[in-house]
């Protein structure tokens, strides 16, 4: 009886040892899964931080885009204002050089200079009438007394 009881106890101890080994293996497996879960959680936390940083960068870039768009709109408005304010204006230096050049040009070619001045001023052939020619001749006469003036046909 003692040996049967001893055998029974040995078998019971063996079963408990086997159960303990299974539980240790299960614990190791669960610990491994827990470590993986912690690693995944850390990775997710890092990704969340990176996402937050990227969202901040996107917002900053949107602000920069908005600022640059405002600067572009302002520059375009200034450009259009400048175009509108200079539209129809004649370059004074150019006209002065043409005017002075008129007097340095041989008499038989002066009509070409006057024609060029008229086209720069926006006067087309139909608007360069004899009265226009006379006005220009008077202007020239007032600025250069004693100038030899021919008729209105010198402009055409």
Automatic annotation (TrEMBL):
Organism phylogeny: Eukaryota, Metazoa, Chordata, Craniata, Vertebrata
Top-rank lineage group of the source organism: Eukaryota
Alphabetical GO biological process terms: endoplasmic reticulum to Golgi vesicle-mediated transport; Golgi organization
Keyword Coiled coil annotated: yes
GO cellular component, one term: Golgi apparatus
GO molecular function: small GTPase binding
Keyword Cytoplasm: no
Organism: Tupaia chinensis
Residues annotated as domain GRIP-related Arf-binding: 85-128
Cellular location(s): Golgi apparatus
Main location per the UniProt record: Golgi
Keywords, ordered alphabetically: Coiled coil, Golgi apparatus, Receptor
UniProt protein name: Thyroid receptor-interacting protein 11
InterPro entries, A to Z: GRAB (IPR019459)
PANTHER family per the UniProt record, alphabetical: MYOSIN HEAVY CHAIN - RELATED, THYROID RECEPTOR-INTERACTING PROTEIN 11
Pfam families: GRAB (PF10375)
